[in-house]
Design a protein that fits this description.
8% strand; HNH endonuclease; 45% helix; single chain; 10 helices
């Protein structure tokens, strides 16, 4: 499993690498095999993104050691877009791995009672419900509760913006960066609503049977738990 700890890209960016095209050519050739081997399952949150002849998977592939020249299978981790944001705080540009630079549209929140993987799956479901007329109000209610958890982060660090954390991490030496988990282990990424709606739409395209209208029993329990945590 891929550990979801907020971080940044610290090695050479493709735009500054004269050998990037050669590395990416190898990566593009190996990417389909890596995805198939994982059965199109995110190694961060275990979300499964379907692959068909007419619809390619939405999963992305991450270089775990941050070196896009290392295209060994053991270094390539299939992960969803939400999970891919964790090692790329503040990233604004798309990548060959499929990343769309979503981490710049995020804030960090103190939600230690939920593992990052579980939160990503909850956020994906919230995004799907936001686009359902009958569930949108409840989805927003839960989302607002989660968004309030950025306040303790602002108080402790002076900011909750992913871009600001990325800037601070870029100034750390290698030893301090490796130990960043001590400071940010309990922090989770909370995405903008439009990002969640896109993730939710992708989920419903992958799994049409998971319509929000079928969630009533379990969804109500989630609302109660979310509101209880706010009290």
């Amino acid at each position: 499993m891929f550990k979801l700890i907020p971080g940044i890209k610290r090695s050479v960016f493709r735009d500054n690498d004269p050998r990037a095209k050669q590395a990416d050519a190898v990566f593009v050739a190996r990417r389909p095999q890596v995805l198939e081997k994982s059965r199109y399952t995110c190694q961060g949150c275990l979300y499964r993104s379907m692959q068909t002849a007419k619809k390619p998977t939405k999963l992305q592939v991450h270089h775990q050691d941050d070196d896009h020249h290392n295209n060994d299978d053991s270094n390539l981790a299939p992960i969803c877009g939400l999970c891919h944001g964790y090692p790329h705080l503040g990233c604004k540009t798309a990548s060959t791995g499929g990343g769309g630079g979503l981490a710049s549209d995020a804030q960090l929140a103190a939600i230690p009672e939920l593992a990052a993987a579980d939160l990503n799956n909850l956020l994906r479901a919230i995004g799907a419900a936001m686009s359902d007329p009958n569930e949108a109000a409840v989805a927003k209610q839960i989302y607002d509760v989660l968004c309030e958890r950025v306040l303790p982060v602002r108080k402790a660090f002076g900011t909750s913006k992913a871009l600001d954390f990325a800037g601070a991490m870029s100034k750390l030496n290698s030893v301090d960066y490796a130990a960043r988990g001590d400071a940010v282990f309990d922090l989770r990424i909370v995405w903008k609503a439009d990002v969640l709606k896109k993730a939710g739409a992708d989920m419903l395209e992958d799994h049409p049977s998971l319509k929000p209208s079928s969630w009533h029993a379990s969804y109500g329990e989630l609302v109660e738990e979310a509101l209880a945590s706010q009290a």
